[in-house]
Design a protein that fits this description.
The protein is mainly α and 191 residues long. It has seven helices and two strands; from the N terminus they run H-E-E-H-H-H-H-H-H. The chain has a two-stranded antiparallel ribbon with strand order 1-2.
Length: 191
């Protein structure tokens, strides 16, 4: 490895340690949520880092960096994976009785799915007819994951307030519209 690579590796490790230190320092501090209730970040050791964990902002930063550095084709896969992960987190938060944070996390999951659908549609719209067949697998991957979102919202909708239900239904309606548009492009390939 060259000196530049070692320098970059050292800077990346230093940055990671700094983020870890800051996260650990703020582990016991409280923060305000959008509805003015106090929520404390937790520091616990588990397989996954849920949104109530003090290291969660670090995970979000890494996700953002990966998205920014990804190619257009890879972005849709990442967006769908991030949405799926947040859907799982919503389930875990509801199991723990944290419906406020579960709602926020679920809306992020739906927004990631909608963004994946939008970017998948954009790839079809902007590509030549011959190149569209290359995006088929990607579109099938996205569409295959969508029923889990509907099932989750239907199963857990009673755990949310009326205003939250309206927001979830709005995001789900957008999801259905975008999914139909993506299916339209897939059907054009088969013709």
């Amino acid at each position: 490895m060259s000196k530049v690579n070692y320098l970059f590796l050292f800077l990346a490790a230093s940055f990671a340690l700094f983020i870890l230190f800051v996260s650990l320092q703020s582990a016991n501090k409280n923060r305000m949520t959008s509805n003015s209730s106090l929520v404390s970040n937790k520091f616990y050791i588990a397989k996954e880092i849920l949104p109530d964990h003090s290291l969660y902002p670090t995970l979000m930063l890494i996700d953002r960096l990966r998205l920014e550095l990804a190619s257009a084709e890879k972005r849709t896969y990442l967006l769908m994976n991030y949405g799926n992960r947040r859907l799982f987190y919503s389930r875990r938060l509801l199991e723990e009785g944290n419906s406020d944070l579960a709602f926020i996390t679920l809306t992020k999951a739906l927004k990631y799915a909608n963004q994946a659908l939008s970017e998948g549609i954009f790839l079809f719209e902007e590509s030549s007819f011959n190149k569209r067949s290359g995006y088929q697998q990607q579109a099938f991957f996205i569409l295959e994951k969508l029923p889990a979102y509907d099932d989750f919202v239907v199963l857990h909708r009673d755990q949310f307030s009326n205003d939250e239900k309206v927001m979830l239904e709005t995001l789900a309606a957008e999801n259905h519209y975008l999914a139909e548009k993506l299916r339209y492009f897939l059907n054009q390939i088969d013709l």
